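User: I'm preparing a small set of examples for a lab meeting where we compare how different chains pack in three dimensions. I only have the primary sequence for this one, and I'd like the structure in token form so I can line it up with the others. Please keep the answer compact; I'll paste it straight into my notes.
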Amino acid sequence: MKNLLKVTLVIALAAGLTACKKNVKDDANADMMTGTTTEMVLQETTVVEEEEVQTVQAALGVVHFALDKYNLSAEARKIVEANAQAIKSQAAGAPYTVVVEGNCDSRGTIAYNIALGEKRANEVKAYYVRLGIPAANISTVSYGKEKPICYENTQSCWAKNRRADTILTIN
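Assistant: Understood. Below is the structure token output for the 171-residue chain.
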């Protein structure tokens, strides 16, 4: 009985190994074919990426605001007008996007400064649109007091942080 059991186990083990060996060969062939296909797809993707146009990003003139204000002064309008001319000349028919970033000084609550930064960015955007820059190409973002360029608690430092930055990206 023990011998019969041993013989049955040996036969079952041999049959199992034979079946596994056959599957390993089939799986290896399948892997080789799959690897070739994957390699070709990766090469195609790489070629497409190399053909893409590089993006160029430029920061334009900075518009500054008075304390708790979002309307454009005469000086600020001149800066936006110069920026609009630069956008038109640098883009020159190429697809482009403009991002206007509204910023505030460190005083006031986060919510207040986010809202004020948004008003500042929207005011600059509206003037760009009046100057002929398509609204579809312009987006706005408000950083409130979260992105200062000066960290001192002085009037002159706070004045530097009350601003709207314009970023031009040409695709």
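A couple of notes for your slides: Residues 17-51 have pLDDT under 50 and may be disordered. The longest helix spans residues 2-51.

User: Perfect, thanks.
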